[in-house]
């Protein structure tokens, strides 16, 4: 499939009928997504009949006629919103997410909702109640998670762009595993209104694209203040591609030593080192830096995220949303039966972990400590960015995509897949995963991290990195 | 730190979840493995009075004297229910047969 800007231009210039790209996307989805060996990337999509009667204006906006997929934890009026959970099976929200509305207003066509780890809790998209997603680059491997359906849909060429959500790396890590671009904006850059909350202080809507330019186009369409989300910030939205052609000359790239330790697979390390060498050859100045509290970040992240999740998911009790098991004798029994039948194993595990971390006897030991570490991690970033570093470069994930089923029985090993991505969420920073050279034929992602509100610099570095990797 | 099966059952009650004996055994193993990893937090020296968490997103940047736009899509009073004769107006229950009063009764 063509890139987003080319599709929109063809539609605006009248070279392509406005609904045609969406019909093509639906046809590709039907070819690749179903059956026992299909990707299983979509939980709901336009039917052939709906696609054939689509009425799309050709002058709809910046991304006119562009087919986009949306992770199924963002509310939509035309499709159910399940969050990959039995407890929300068939649930149709009465309102749509701000990001979905802004996509439509910019001319995009939402072709479907993508599969995910239940309530975005996972790193492989094997925790969905509707079955695992397969990686289009190797159908025996996971696509990463939790936004694995969106990553797979873009990697398979079904859509040129998709939305995901990133609480601890859930856009960047699947982008790395599937060989596409994945962006997490600064916390507060994009509205969370209509994004079903997992961990509210960490959640942020992110974007997938086949190229850096595609991710920038989607961010441009959805960014900006929203009075319906008190954590969205009223700041001007810049042109994120304004430094597209600036190159790497003079860019100061920090390389934190803590991200290149023993946990890193040799093939991933080699890809990162090759990319850094090419970056330097194109004019970037590479400096080794230290982020000394990195080792504590994963623990702090999982304490905070599960604590917030235990509170956020208390609302799913059979009263207001989704399914209800009313076979019990009283209200309390109805709550318990509904939640026990509706939530999957990983969600229950995280609710219990978060409830435990917040109990009176353990609050200071876990939650209080984790909040202190969060402050220290944010301070580490402020120190290096205050010392002349423009962007940081790290591997996105310590490994390439692992085989389906390999880690699903070992939650700690699964959590370790997020070890390089959680820091940007703890500090609220923008970060992007860009495909590097492969390792044994499997995609590898390199992560760039910028200061808060530094998306323009982040994109400058990402465009430059993408160019040197393609040239190499 | 370790967590016992009894504690898991207690936490499950707080979280409004039912856990069978077999599940509590498996959960106890999983959670203890995870908590053992989390215990590294205890080994970190945290400075007294250090920063806690991240804080809220930064406030909007505005020119001096600039008045921010009203963040509400509509004034709160517009969302309030009708009020008549010291009562809120609510729809009539169908059983009372007031179908000719679509505006409801106080």
Question: Your description of this structure?
Answer:
The complex is a heterodimer of chains A (472) and B (106). Helices cover 36% and strands 11% of the residues of chain A. Chain A contains 15 helices and eleven strands. In chain A, helix 9 crosses helix 11 and helix 9 crosses helix 12. Chain A starts with a helix and ends with a helix. The model of chain A has no long low-confidence stretch (mean pLDDT 96). By secondary structure, chain B is mostly helical. Chain B is built from three helices and two strands, in the order αααββ. In chain B, helix 1 packs across helix 2. The C terminus of chain B is likely disordered. Chains A and B meet through helix 9, helix 10, helix 11, helix 12 and helix 13 of A and helix 1 and helix 2 of B.
Summarize the structure.
The complex is a heterodimer of chains A (472) and B (106). Chain A has 472 residues and is of the alpha/beta class.
- Proportion in β-strands of chain B: under 5%
Number of beta strands of chain A: 11
Binned, the helix content of chain A reads 25-40%
What is the tally of helical segments of chain A?
15
Q: Segments of chain B where pLDDT lies below 50 for 5+ residues?
A: 97-106
First-last Cα distance of chain B:
58 Å
Strand content of chain A: 5-15%
Which residue ranges of chain A are poorly predicted, with pLDDT under 50 across at least 5 consecutive positions?
Answer: none
| Structure summary, number of beta strands of chain B | 2
What's the story with the biggest beta sheet of chain A? 11 strands, mixed
Estimated radius of gyration of chain B:
28 Å
Written as H for each helix and E for each strand, in order along the chain, the element string of chain B is: HHHEE
Please state the oligomeric state of the protein chains shown.
heterodimer
